[in-house]
Amino acid sequence: MANKTPETFVLERPEQRDVLRSPIRLEILGQFLKPGGMSVGEIAERMGRPAASLYYHVELLEAVGILEKVGERRRGKRFEALYEPVADRFGYPADPDQTSSIEDAVKTMSSAFRMAEKDMKSALQDNTGTYEGPYRNCVGTRVHARVSKKALKAVNDHLAAIESVLVEENQRETARKTDQYVSLTLALLPLHGRNKPVATKSGSKSSKE
C-alpha cells in the first residue's frame, strides 16, 4: 500500500498467524488493490457480502496488527473508518524448529488453495475464464522438475517480476474499462526423496524422478 515498507511483514506473534488461517480473512486482505484505504462497506461490496458479516473479521485483523485505520470518510450522515494492511506482503518465520509456525503456515496456504479452488470452479461454471492467448486469465498447472541452481534462480527472477507487475497494477490510481480482477496462488516447493539412485537391470546406478 502507499507509504508502506516494501519488506515482508513477518507474522511473529501466534495470534497473527492464527487469524490468517481463515479463508475469509485472507480474502479480505486481497481486496486492498490501491492506496487510500477502504471501508468495511467497500470491502463487502467487492466481496459480494453484507457489511455486517465482515466487521468482526476486520476488527480482528486490526486488533492483531495486520490492518490499521488510516482515516475516515463521510458516508451519508455518518463517518466510516478506512483501513489498510500494514504491509504489502506477509510471511511466516523461517524457523523449522517452530512447530506451531510451520502448522500455521501450512494451514494458511491450505486456505489460500481452497480459495483458488473456489475461484476456478466459479470461472469454469460462469464461463468467465479466457483459456488461450496473451490475455488468458484462467489456468491451472503443476510441474515437477529437477533444476540446476541457475534454473532455480531464473524461476525466482520470473516470480519476482510477476509479483512486481501485480503490485504496480494494484497501486495504480485510475482503473481502465478493460481491467480485470484476478487472483494468483503459487507454491514453489522442494521435493524430498525424488533423487535417490535406482539400480538398473545391468546393475549400474541411475537417478530417476
Automatic annotation (TrEMBL):
Matching Pfam families: HTH_20
Membrane-spanning intervals of the chain: none
Protein name: Helix-turn-helix domain-containing protein
Source organism of the structure: Eiseniibacteriota bacterium
